[in-house]
Amino acid sequence: MVKPYVIGIDIGGQSTKLGVVDARGNIIIQDTFDTRDITTLKGYMDELEKSLTRMIAVPEIGGKEKIKGIGIGAPNGNYYKGTIEAAPNLKWAKDKQGNPKVIHLKNNVEEAMGLPAVVTNDANAAAQGEMIYGAAKGMKNFIEITLGTGVGSGIVIDGKVVYGHDGFAGELGHTTSIRRTGRLCNCGKVGCLESYASAIGVARTARELLEMDPKRPSSLRNMPADDITSRDVAEAASKGDALSIEVFNYTGRILGEAFADFVAFSAPEAIVIFGGLAQAGDLIFKPTIDAMEDNLLSIWKGKVKVIPSQLPGSEAAILGSAALAWEL
Predict the structure, then answer these.
(1) By CB distance 3.0 to 4.6 Å, which of 53, 123, 124, 296 could disulfide with 300?
(2) What are the strands of the beta sheet with 67-74, ordered from one edge?
(3) Domains defined along the chain, listed by start
(4) CA distance 287 to 292
(5) Could you read off the pLDDT of 123-157 as tens digits, one per residue?
(6) Do the Cβ atoms of 51 and 18 come closer than 8 Å?
């Protein structure tokens, strides 16, 4: 019997998004659930199983026998082993002492659903989706940068996602060439790109600027400092709030300097930005591109595009993860 559908799952630090996808790349049905308050693997698997079971049972899908397999994009997902390893932003992937541990996600999902599964890094899944359906369609050399709770990356060279010898290639969010001192990252290192250019990093920069100059006016002062999010900063900046615009200029400068380094090792045709921060438009793109161009070697100046993802919301990661499942 021909199985016309696969499932793509995008696991993030705050939520999990999943969808049933047909062979043409159409997402037939989607679902999502919040993971911020889930602290155990069992709690996570219970929610995932409920969501998957509910989607598969709808009349448009027609049950489990119509599903070929499940593709999963996850932070620190290992394509070779089917595991999540040392993911700092997943509460349910930690032990009782709060230390990240190895989660055998492929085995757990296969046991729960009775379907074959494959796991990869969430940013690698986004890159796969972008290459097949999005802004990188037709490109063979590009880097996908995901700006969300953390900073992820998927590196594509000669049309293939780079996994490295151990399955963990492409952790560009944890490079420290720009800041070898500074903020402590959730991974335990100091000065990681993620601690500055993620959504959490943007909010942290805003709080630091507010604290450094208590008399400086800003609409962000109308809310408790601990409640400020990157979205709040973007909204304030779009309305002309000078401090919020400075936050994006600072973030973009760090991001662009890092991009110049990334170009130096893989010479991509483009760097595609995916995730919530990409929705800030020129607020993040202009300072990023300016800083990248200022720091590129002359052989690459004006040659590398920095562009937004063409797949809205969660679709890049869902479609990318789903694409892996067709190979099962």
Answers:
(1) 296
(2) 27-34, 15-22, 5-11, 67-74, 117-121
(3) 5-127+314-325 (3.30.420.40), 138-308 (3.30.420.40)
(4) 8
(5) 898 898 898 888 999 999 999 999 988 899 999 99
(6) yes
